[in-house]
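User: I'm designing a mutation panel for Transposase and want to avoid disrupting the core. Could you give me a predicted structure to guide residue selection? Please restate the sequence first so the numbering is unambiguous.

Assistant: Good idea. Sequence first, for numbering, then the predicted structure tokens:
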Amino acid sequence: MFVVDEVVRFTYRLRPGAAAQAALSAEWGRCRWLWNEAVHQQKTGRNPTFCKLSRLLTEARARFAWLREGSQVAQQQTLRTYALALQHSYKVKGRGRPAVKRLRNSLPSLEYTVRGFTIRERRLRLAGGITIPVVWSREMPSEPTSVRVYQDSLGHWYASFVVRRAVEAAPTVDKTIGVDWGVTVTATTSDPAYDLPYLGHRKRCAAELARVQRRMSRRRRPRGNPPSKGYLRAKRQAAELHKKAARQNTHDARQWAKRVVDDHSLIAVEDFTPKFLARSTMARKAADAAIGAARRELIDRGMRAGRKVVLVPPAYTTMTCSQCGTRAKERLGLGVRIFRCGDCGHTACRDRNAARAILATVERDRAGADDVRHVITSLRAGGYARSEPEIPRL
């Protein structure tokens, strides 16, 4: 077993006072103004690269005194983040351009490099004379190279440090597994012992959440009037319920992904995008299942452990027999939960058969590097064959 270094984030709770909160809010207001100016540059067709935005920042700081009061490091990092988001939007099909950040629906988020922060006497000191106590829940393995200070929907402030840590590679194993995503069962695998059931954390608090949301509706004032204290209190209670369910889903996904990665060297994952479920009748249950969070956690943990993770397109996986590779002639409806092969007579659970078909797709074509790959397959004479070369995904 050998030791490797990995770059990770360590997040800690902050306890800023009234003066520190006011300073952070003012800094966020300046950075938000710069972000919106960059969006305006893009909409007017001026192709705002990071170099052009940096020159505009220098001119703006020379012109406005209120902008010079803020940290140049945080402002530059805001423009760098915008430039990366804009560049990513051109590469990813269907991804929209960066949008305007409005005060009413955007949460503060500030980034600092090593030039903009220090840790002294176990307190975080940011550029501009902002000092914030930190709840050190665990020790950092190394000196941080950057930090992101942000606020969540409950008004809590956090600091996310980028650090390096030494980790031991996962033990050598020879087991393989296929993963199929669903709503009734969040993750159905080729081995029933590693299934991730639908836990329904949001469903358990649905009645309480509905009661709080009705209270918000009753206390909502007409447009143009400031919200009442009762409305803000009910809004905070709803945010607490949402955050509690999200944390429970994240915890369960991490525990499940750790079990799968520790025991398997090859992980075949259905390349499923649950976004379309938000426009269907299964939207609420799909959101509660948190398929996307479990998928990201499995891929990230598998990559860090050095496992071979392969993404397989979901097309025809439900219609394909995992034993003989024969594809059914008719598409199976959602009400049909048992798969029956007309050629070999194989009978299995619909999702279990799909997971085993996903695994068979990868096992019968093992070529590829040890990273996340996108395998595109076609069916030939009852078997699996590659129709396109592998395309690295990550």
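For picking mutation sites, this is relevant: The chain has two domains: 3-168, 176-198+244-392. Residues 366-372, 375-394 have pLDDT under 50 and may be disordered.
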